[in-house]
Design a protein that fits this description.
It is elongated, with a radius of gyration of 27 Å. It has a domain of about 40 residues. The longest helix has 15 residues. It is built from 1 helix and 2 strands. It is of the alpha+beta class.
Amino acid sequence: MQIARRSTILGLIAKAWPQRQPTFSADVNVVSIFATVRDESGRIVKDLNAEDFVLLEDGVPQKVRYFSRETDLP
């Protein structure tokens, strides 16, 4: 009887206690984005510069701070 009563009380407390979903937030200063661009024929375009890209965050244009061409990636 004692165990049943404890589990009933604990069950009632658990139902009455508000359940909180864990949240996570962080400030991010730099995000790496890898892109492969192909032309109409399917060939890789190799001569693009940072000015050839538009980067938006929530519809707001963002500045491309670092840009490099990676040629040794699979």
